[in-house]
Design goal:
- By secondary structure, the chain is mainly α.
- The chain has 8 helices and 2 strands, in the order E-H-H-H-H-H-H-H-E-H.
- It has a two-stranded antiparallel sheet.
- Helix 3 runs antiparallel to helix 7.
- The longest helix is centred in the C-terminal third of the chain and has 42 residues.
- The protein is rod-shaped, with a radius of gyration of 34 Å.
- 29% of the residues are buried.
C-alpha cells in the first residue's frame, strides 16, 4: 500500500529540512511566548475589571484557552528545535526517536485543537462584551452609594478609580448619573425640604440630582470643577451645558472599556493566527523528517534515498476497510431476504 502524500528526500534536502525546522521551531516558540504574554495580560485586565462585567459574560474563556494554546505552542517549538537539531547527529537522535511520535500526536491533537478553539473564541466572544459591560456598569453605578453595604462597599472606590484612570464618565455619558442615586442616604438630611421633594418626585423614592461624582471632572479643565445643577443654564456663569466636555470627561466608560478590551482581543487573535500558521508547517515538517529517518534507521546521512510521508498506507487501508465493514454490517447480504415481521396479534373477542 502506498503511503499518504509521500515525498522523496535525498541527503541534501533532508539536511536542509532539519535546519529549516530548527529555525522555524524557534520562531514558533517565540510566537508561543508572545501568545502567553498577551493572553496573560488580557486575563489580568479582566480580573481588574471584573466588577464592571456581568457574571454571565463568557469573554474570560478566550484568554484562558489562548493561555493553554500558547503553552502548547511553546512546548511544540522547543521540542521541534531539539528534535531537528538532534536529527543531524546520529548519536543524539535515538532518544528523540522514541518520543517524537507521541509528541507529534499530542501537538497535533492538543495544540491544533486548542488553537482552533481559541481562534473561534477570538472571533465569536468579543460581541458578548457589549452586553456584559452594559449590565456590569449599570450594576456598579446602582451600588455606588452602598458604601456600607457588605459586598458593595468598594463599588464607589472602584468606579471612581475607573473614571479617573480611563477618563470616562457614566455608562454612556455624564447624564447617566442623573438617573441613579449616587449619594448615600446616610449623608442626606431628612428634615431638608429640598431632599424630601427630590425623593418624592419619582416613584422609586430615590434622591436624584443633575450632578455627577468628582471623578467625572477633567483636571485639564481651566476652571474649577462643576458637579451639580448641570442642567440649569443659569446656575453657573460662563458655563454652557451643551458643551460639558470642557469641564467633564466626554466619553462614557462603556465605549472606552469596550474599545480597550476588543483591541486586546484583536491583538490576541492575530497572534493566535500567526501561531497556527507556524505550528502547522513545523508539525508537518517533523512528521516528514521522522518518517524519512525511520527508513534509514535514524541516521540522516545514511546511504540511499528515502521518502517521508504523512500517513502509512496500511493505516489508510485499515481505516477504509473498517468503514466498509461498518457500512456492510447494516446491509443484508445479496440474495438474503429481509427478516419477516411478526404478524400482528389478534384482538381478543369481545365479551
Amino acid at each position: 500500500m502506498a503511503p499518504v502524500l509521500p515525498l522523496a528526500l535525498p541527503l541534501q534536502p533532508r539536511i536542509r529540512l532539519a535546519q529549516g525546522l530548527w529555525l522555524l521551531s524557534w520562531v514558533l516558540a517565540l510566537a508561543g511566548v508572545l501568545t502567553l504574554l498577551c493572553s496573560g495580560h488580557l486575563l489580568v485586565q479582566l480580573w481588574h475589571l471584573r466588577t464592571f462585567l456581568a457574571p454571565s459574560c463568557p469573554f474570560s474563556a478566550l484568554p484562558q484557552v489562548a493561555l493553554a494554546a500558547g503553552a502548547v505552542a511553546l512546548c511544540t517549538g522547543l521540542a521541534g528545535a531539539g528534535a531537528s537539531r538532534a536529527s543531524l547527529d546520529a548519536a543524539q537522535y535515538p532518544p528523540w526517536r522514541r518520543v517524537l511520535g507521541p509528541l507529534l500526536v499530542a501537538g497535533t491533537a492538543g495544540g491544533g485543537g486548542l488553537l482552533v478553539l481559541a481562534l473561534a473564541l477570538a472571533l465569536a466572544l468579543p460581541g458578548s462584551l457589549d452586553t456584559g459591560l452594559e449590565e456590569g456598569l449599570g450594576a456598579a453605578m446602582a451600588h455606588y452609594r452602598d458604601t456600607e453595604v457588605p459586598g458593595h462597599c468598594h463599588a464607589k472606590r472602584l468606579l471612581d478609580e475607573l473614571q479617573l484612570r480611563h477618563h470616562c464618565c457614566g455608562r454612556h455619558g455624564f447624564k447617566d448619573w442623573f438617573g441613579v442615586q449616587w449619594v448615600s442616604s446616610r449623608y442626606l438630611d431628612p428634615n431638608d425640604q429640598d431632599v424630601v421633594d427630590r425623593i418624592q418626585s419619582n416613584v422609586e423614592g430615590l434622591y436624584l440630582t443633575d450632578g455627577v461624582p468628582f471623578s467625572c471632572c477633567n483636571p485639564h479643565s481651566p476652571r474649577p470643577c462643576l458637579q451639580d445643577r448641570l442642567s440649569d443654564p443659569h446656575a453657573h456663569p460662563l458655563f454652557d451645558p451643551r458643551q460639558p466636555n470642557l469641564n467633564l470627561w466626554a466619553q462614557g466608560c462603556h465605549g472606552v472599556l469596550l474599545g480597550h478590551l476588543q483591541g486586546l482581543a484583536s491583538t490576541l487573535g492575530s497572534l493566535l493566527a500567526v501561531t497556527f500558521l507556524l505550528q502547522t508547517p513545523v508539525l508537518l515538517g517533523l512528521r516528514y523528517l521522522q518518517t524519512a529517518l525511520e527508513g534509514l534507521g535514524g541516521v540522516i546521512d545514511g546511504a540511499g534515498e528515502t521518502q517521508g510521508y504523512l500517513l502509512p498506507g496500511g493505516l489508510r487501508h485499515r481505516l477504509r476497510t473498517a468503514w466498509l465493514q461498518g457500512g456492510a454490517a447494516h446491509r443484508p447480504a445479496p440474495g438474503e431476504a429481509p427478516p419477516e415481521e411478526a404478524p400482528p396479534g389478534e384482538d381478543p373477542p369481545e365479551a
